[in-house]
Amino acid sequence: MSSDSPIITASAHAVPSYLNADNLGPWGIYLQQVDRVTPYLGSLARWVETLKRPKRALVVDVPIEMDDGTIAHFEGYRVQHNTSRGPGKGGVRFHQDVTLSEVMALSAWMSVKNAAVNVPYGGAKGGIRVDPRKLSRAELERVTRRYTSEINIIIGPNKDIPAPDVNTNEQVMAWMMDTYSMNEGSTSTGVVTGKPISLGGSLGRREATGRGVFVVGAEAARNLGMEIKGARIVVQGFGNVGSVAAKLFHEAGAKVIAVQDHKTALFDPAGLDVPALIEHVTHNGTIEGFRAETINAEQFWQTECEILIPAALEGQITAANAPHIKARMVIEGANGPTTPEADDILRERNILVAPDVIANAGGVTVSYFEWVQDFSSFFWTEEEINQRLVRIMQEAFRAIWQVSQENKVTLRTAAFIIACTRILQAREMRGLYP
Fold first, then answer.
1. In the annotation, is 125 catalytic?
2. pLDDT by residue (tens digit) across 206-224?
3. What does the alpha-carbon distance between residue 371 and residue 158 come to, in Å, rounded to a whole number?
4. What is the DSSP string of 343-406?
5. So what's the pLDDT on residue 227?
6. Residue 31: which pLDDT band, with cuts at 50, 70 and 90?
7. Could you give the maximum distance between any two Cα atoms of the chain, in Å?
8. Per annotation, catalytic residue among 89, 125, 195, 247
9. Residue 9 per-residue DSSP state
10. What pTM, to 2 d.p., does this model score?
11. Is 213 helix (H, G, I), strand (E, B) or coil?
């Protein structure tokens, strides 16, 4: 692959004063990505600062009474990056390391992701800085409901639609939907997606992100002339995204030879028994203890394979480990797992990277289906959902691949060219009011 040219590093003007110049964090990484795509935006470049500033960022205090009677305070965030193309859309994560910089970046990547697959949403994201493993179920419910009440002023089915993310699930979405509905005085199923089926959720939503990773991986492999059958797969993160992607690659005849989670990493050159591993994680919450060889993090990142799928958190592939990765392609199941420096190293080593903004867009695509179904109160079959998902993902990837080939840029830059053009065209056509 050719080097992206020209490359512009994040300028002092682009980096807000609260970012550390030596460690830009997720938001700084996003700004670098925007700077790289700016030369390809033509006359729309006059609007590019729109992409570098969130439309709205809300920081809220989330106080709750703990089970022991004490009062605890948690910090929550909801950021709406851009709503030029439609209501904000993005998940809510509960994690002890959540920061405003992270949520800002994730909201911006949602803007790009939604535009890349051409669903009529803007980008948003939310989070609470809390370790949910340390809360009882009752405490978790109180945190969720209080947070929802605090951000109630900016969310809504036509304003901003939350969804599950790290450490949140269908139950959390049910609590959020109920809290919002009680405050509105009427049931509003469309205020969140990723809900239980019984509350207006969509069939296929739980597996959608992992399925999208598989679809993009299969398309990328086809373009490289690579057979999926027999291909060696390495997966970092074995939650909802990583496990589903691993299962689908396994069913297609690939060998999942290494898996890593927050506890350990496993290796089996003959291929792990993925269904058994999923069953193990269901009962134990981790891959630890499964019958396979245990390897360390360094060995994991150096495992020779055809496809590497980072499906955990952002910033996992860095300048430190990128030179040692032995894969033909990287399919980003997580948001922002590869730093710009690592991106450059992988490009120089001719390792294809299918970026997060297309590779993991399956979840938001089926969230869009769920939202549409909620408005019409008419629900599709799982087969219809999956067919529509595959078609949208394939068409989006093929368009990105074509732009990549025409401009001799990476797939990430190509995705940003398409997405940022769509966002800024909408901004330009709407104009500024007042």
1. yes
2. 899 999 999 999 999 999 9
3. 10
4. HHHHHHTT-EEE-HHHHTTHHHHHHHHHHHHHHHT----HHHHHHHHHHHHHHHHHHHHHHHHH
5. 96
6. very high
7. 64
8. 125
9. P
10. 0.90
11. helix
